[in-house]
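Sample entry (92 residues):
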Amino acid sequence: MRRSCRFVNLHSEKTADHWQNYQGAKNAAKKAVAVAKATQYGDVNEKLESRDGELYRLAKNRHWQAEDIEKVFGINYENDQLLIDPKKALKR
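Predicted structure, serialized as tokens:
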């Protein structure tokens, strides 16, 4: 019996036997999903660990580091003025 059918049975007749059947089906479904995800993402992880994956990771880090520098627009100056100009903010 499928998990959804056991769920309906659980709520139609609340007995310990129905609860155990439902929990067993729920755990089996979770395990099946975990195995499917592991096999699917295993190929992706192997590709990322290869030389091409290393280059992708380095490019992504470089992008985020450059974006962090570009977002320095809101810095408070000594006299509580907000510096919006990025050149002045970087000089400070």
